[in-house]
Write a structure and sequence with these properties.
261 residues, Rossmann fold, alpha/beta
Amino acid sequence: MICCGIWGNDKSGKSSLALSFPKPIHHFEFDLGGYDRAIRRFTKERDDGLITSEPFIIGNMNEVTIKQSKIIVGAKELWYEFLVKYLRFLNDKDIITGVIDTGTLLYNLDCDAFLQEKQEIQFDSKGNLLPNERLRAILQPPEYREPNTRMRGIIYQAKAHGKNLVLVHHSRDEYKSTLDRKTGEIKEAKTGEKERSGFASLGDSTDLMLHTYTKQNRETKATEFYCKVDEQSVPPGLVDMEFENPTYDKIMDATRMIQGE
């Protein structure tokens, strides 16, 4: 069994690679649209019941309520709904692989749910902000320990139950501190590179970290899909190995070859 992180730009084949993992797969959909694009390559597996998916959306359009700005509503409830269904997945002996798509949005939900819990204790039973309380708008840096622990628990429970787990993540612009030669000030500036977005400790808990991207074929001008193995991966001999039209089987074949199996 393997825990894998996959990250890359939009439409770079992240979800398609995730759905190539061993079946049956249960797909937890937080990023609407990616699954619909990817499943076109797996219609037979879907029709045969080997790939199932369920969406997680904050809010119910039939029950719209107006809340004070910055009050978080629904994140905690959706987080615990996910946990209940994730536990069901863990205890389902027939399902081999879970795909969380995307882990970026799940981590954001995790943080928002914890902040919602912090906000709720600031109100009385009638929903009024307690005297001398200032509404919490963000988590403080030490408080991210709890959301991070929750995310690690999701990964460790998959391993404990003998499940494959794939966490798909968005990418974001990478920033680094640079010296402004005109002012002498240190500023954050884009490097021109991309990095994984959400749950910075993911690489410490996974067996494989894969970066997906596309290239344009010089002759046909067609878009071709690739992935490269990132530094956090095991075995280390896989690091920087590139796969064209990547699949789980291609990557595992390379892993077995490196391990001499």
